[in-house]
Design brief:
7-stranded antiparallel beta sheet, iron, Pirin_C_dom, RmlC_Cupin_sf, Jelly Rolls, mainly beta, globular, metal ion binding, 3 helices
């Protein structure tokens, strides 16, 4: 699981030592993601399945894509499809993915890169492995997170952010036992590159066997910890977790998690995808590729899509060489 790493984490800035009076967040809910298939048939884990929307707000949906080692000719993607009313955040840990949309955004992301597409008023897009990966096969692993937009921003013009892995803010723990990659928002004063409408924080944390992390977390944010790989515990109550599980946390000012001293051979460390944000607290009407506030708005989105008002599929797929497209 390469993502972005460093040879020596001890050269990085470090999290502060938290005072003994810190209120650590309890684990309120622990769930295990069911497996399924997306697009043309690539395997996913549905990380938020069965979790109430009120626990997820401002997030809507999270898929862990893979981890799968494709044979030549096997890599798959999605066909052209519409979105309106939210943002997709696609993070690639291993492998590569191409994106193209009808608003002009697009590019190729690979180990540690993120594509942040704000669908806003609506567009069509396609995601697929590049031709060289289809030809050769290889490892593919990533996530796609859907972030809700507040009512006032749902019909904003679409935009696209290309975030290279090297742009993430990197820091470690006081003892150097973990690598923290801040993709968006802020952790202990270190800000990630992602630009967001709703105040959120997204970070990918790799915890070495036996190490513990005390991560400061904004008290007004929710806190969702998803296990990408490995085994460990979450919360001061040390709830056991493993690959494919989501821990929903209660109120507090910090998160605590620990990697088991002994890890499985295919997951040498505990890898976590951690999300939090300021709840929007607005009605959610979600069906298929649209996330709106009311049923009438969903009907309008489908009508606009069918009438071609969300864009027209180009005659030919435009090749991209990495990170091209408008930035916000």
């Amino acid at each position: 699981m390469p993502a972005i790493t460093v040879d020596n984490v001890l050269v990085l800035p470090r999290l502060p030592q938290l005072p003994e009076t810190t209120a650590f967040r309890p684990v309120r809910r622990l769930s295990t993601a069911p497996s399924g298939y997306e697009g043309e048939g690539f395997p996913v884990r549905r990380a938020f399945a069965g979790v109430p929307v009120s626990d997820l707000d401002p997030f809507i949906h999270l898929d862990q894509m893979g981890e799968v080692d494709y044979a030549p000719g096997e890599p798959k993607g999605t066909s052209w499809h519409p979105h309106r009313g939210f943002e997709t955040v696609t993070y690639i840990i291993d492998g590569a993915f191409d994106h193209q949309d009808t608003h002009g955004g697009g590019g190729t992301i690979t180990n540690g890169d993120t594509q942040w597409m704000t669908a806003g008023s609506g567009l069509l897009h396609i995601e697929a492995p590049p031709e060289h990966l289809v030809t050769s096969g290889g490892l593919f692993h990533g996530t796609q997170l859907w972030v809700n937009l507040p009512r006032a921003a749902k019909m904003n013009p679409p935009r696209y952010q290309d975030i290279r892995g090297r742009e993430a803010a990197l820091l470690t723990t006081p003892d150097g036992g973990a690598l923290i990659r801040v993709i968006a928002g802020e952790v202990a004063g270190h800000r990630g590159p992602g630009s967001t409408f709703t105040p959120i924080t997204i970070t990918h944390v790799t915890v070495q066997p036996g190490a513990q992390v005390d991560l400061p977390w904004r008290p007004d944010f929710n806190a969702l910890v998803y296990v990408l790989g490995g085994r460990g515990t979450v919360g001061t109550e040390r709830r056991p977790v493993h690959t494919g599980q989501l821990a929903v946390h209660g109120p507090g000012a910090a998160l605590r998690f620990t990697a088991d001293a002994q890890q499985d051979g295919n997951a040498p460390a505990l890898d976590l995808y951690i999300m939090g944000g300021e709840p929007i607290r607005e009605p959610v009407a979600h069906y298929g590729p649209f996330v709106m506030n009311t049923r009438d708005e969903l009907i309008q989105a489908f009508e606009d899509f069918q009438a071609g008002r969300l864009g027209v599929i180009p005659a030919a797929r435009v090749p991209h060489t990495g990170g091209q497209g408008p930035r916000p």
